[in-house]
Amino acid sequence: MRRIVPSVVSMLAVAMGVSACGDDKSYAVPDRLCGVSVEPALLKPLLPAGEELKAEPRYVGDDEFPGSEGALRCMVTVDGKNALYVQEFSGQNSFDVLEHARKSFFDRNPQKIKGVANAVVADGKFLAVTPCGNGKKNLLLDIDMNMPVGEAGDLRDELERFATAYLPVGKKKMGCEQ
């Protein structure tokens, strides 16, 4: 009986060690994503394990998004695989994001959040439409996590914290008043 207990304990220790390595982030979590300042501690939980992180911006003009004053797309990859996609579009008309979410990604359980008037968080997705100021139309912020919905659901609170901290800085980067 004594020999079984140490074997079980050592097997558990090995299993725990293996799972801890699965969360290993060999890369430095950045403090900027495509020119927008971010809090690394808020970004870190949203990123997968890996060795190399890249954040590549793509500015999009009116040709690709008619009616938009401008857009920023930021693709975050880890080891060459999409991890996080952040999109901002200025000059947008307002719409009810909860109603839109219930039609477009209802399977992700969208819910309104507190602190931002027209925003929802869902399993792996954040969407907000907020006034831009300066007499301009609204800013749309759309953040997608590239992971299975079930796993992303465990990170809803972390996604909401990151997105609400990102929103005012992103708005400023897109030329909106605070």
Please, could you describe this protein's structure?
The protein has 178 residues and is an alpha+beta fold. 30% of the residues lie in helices and 33% in strands. The strands form two sheets. A seven-stranded antiparallel β-sheet has the order 3-4-5-9-8-7-6, sandwiched between helices. Strands 1-2 form a two-stranded antiparallel ribbon. It starts with a helix and ends in a 5-residue tail after the last helix. The N terminus is likely disordered.
Summarize the structure.
This protein has about 180 residues and is an alpha+beta fold. The chain contains five helices and nine strands, in the order αββαβββαββββαα.
Oligomer state equals single chain
Report mean pLDDT, rounded to a whole number.
Answer: 81
Basic shape? globular
Uncertain regions spanning at least 5 consecutive residues? 1-22
Please give the alpha-carbon distance between the first and last residues.
67 Å
How many strands, what sense, and barrel or not for the largest sheet?
A: 7 strands, antiparallel
Number of helices: 5
Secondary-structure content class: alpha+beta
Strand percentage = 25-35%
Question: What strand line-up does the widest sheet have?
Answer: 3-4-5-9-8-7-6
- What string gives the helices and strands in order? HEEHEEEHEEEEHH
According to DSSP, the number of beta strands is 9
The Cα radius of gyration reads 19 Å
